[in-house]
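Lab notes, practical 5.
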Amino acid sequence: MRVKYATIIVKDMDKSINFYTEVMGFEVDSKYDLGPAREITLLKGEGDTMVELIKNPEDKPGLFSIGMDVEDLNTTIEQLKSNGAKVIMEPVPITVGFLAFIEDPNQVRIALIQHN
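Output from the prediction step:
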């Protein structure tokens, strides 16, 4: 799974870190304490990909979606389901290949795309 870069505002940093590490397979790269109730965690995926989680009470949590490339969508979906991911749209054919959506604990839609 490959993400170029995405920023997500979160309500619960620990729950969000757990989702991206335990369910999605990312690793914590670095953490930054920005003062009272504010923090950033950078997570690495495959290659040079990064997801930035930001906890900031002034911002509304969420993001409509982020896009991730996968090699084999059906295998990826099955693995994510077994890890506890919530699938909100099963794989469907699209112009460039196949698309599915899962949802993280913040109701952020994650588009999983297998390009042909």
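Observations recorded by the TA: The chain is about 20% helix and 45% strand. Residues 2 and 10 are 21 Å apart (CA to CA).
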